[in-house]
């Protein structure tokens, strides 16, 4: 768990999404690692998405201990503003920033993020190979 402040880029400016706890978890349905952020006072989800290869973490150079990336937002906040609602409806990537209290927390988060991104990609590739294998076997059965 990481105590953080989350921002989202919307309408050409950074907006605070919430202060609270960010953590990674394994989704029981699709078996992929996800990132979720809960607001401190309300417990509302302010960020929620699978960690995918499309999400490339970069340090925000003008702000200390801050990382930026893009992802498809699945939180309830995605419906709060018109521009975010349109992005979500189009299944577009949303740009996030997350600020940590310490550089050590930021580095640990980044290592975990990259590790889970790799694990998710391996799972998706394996799943894709399995599905293609099933399709190939179906074609063979159809021909006999």
Structure overview:
- The structure is a single chain.
- The protein has helices at residues 82-89, 103-143, and strands at 2-10, 13-26, 33-39, 45-50, 58-59, 66-71, 94-100.
- It is α+β, with helices and mostly antiparallel strands and 144 residues long.
- Strand 1 and strand 2 (13-26) form a beta hairpin.
Explain the layout of strands and helices.
Elements: E1 2-10, E2 13-26, E3 33-39, E4 45-50, E5 58-59, E6 66-71, H1 82-89, E7 94-100, H2 103-143
Antiparallel strand pairs: 1-2, 1-7, 2-3, 3-4, 5-6, 6-7
First-residue to last-residue Cα separation: 55 Å
| Strand runs, count | 7
Biggest sheet character: 7 strands, antiparallel
Secondary-structure element pattern, one letter each = EEEEEEHEH
Strand order of the largest sheet: 4-3-2-1-7-6-5
Tally of contiguous helical segments: 2
CA gyration radius, whole angstroms = 18 Å
Categorize the overall geometry: globular
Helical/strand content category: alpha+beta
Which percent band covers the strand fraction? 35-45%
Average of the residue pLDDT scores: 84
The percentage helix is: 25-40%
In terms of per-residue confidence, which ranges show pLDDT below 50 for 5 or more consecutive residues? 136-144
């Amino acid at each position: 768990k990481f105590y953080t402040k989350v921002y989202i880029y919307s309408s050409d400016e950074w907006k605070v999404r919430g202060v609270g706890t960010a953590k990674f978890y394994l989704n029981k349905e699709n078996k992929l690692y996800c990132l979720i952020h809960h607001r401190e006072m309300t417990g509302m989800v302010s960020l929620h998405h699978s960690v995918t290869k499309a999400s490339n973490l970069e340090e925000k150079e003008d702000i200390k201990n801050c990382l930026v990336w893009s992802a498809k937002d699945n939180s309830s906040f995605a419906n709060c503003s018109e521009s975010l609602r349109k992005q979500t409806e189009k299944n577009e990537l949303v740009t996030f920033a997350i600020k940590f209290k310490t550089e050590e927390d930021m580095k640990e988060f980044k290592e975990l993020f990259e590790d889970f991104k790799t694990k998710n990609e391996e799972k998706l590739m394996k799943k894709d190979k399995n599905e293609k294998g099933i399709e190939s076997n179906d074609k063979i059965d159809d021909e006999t």
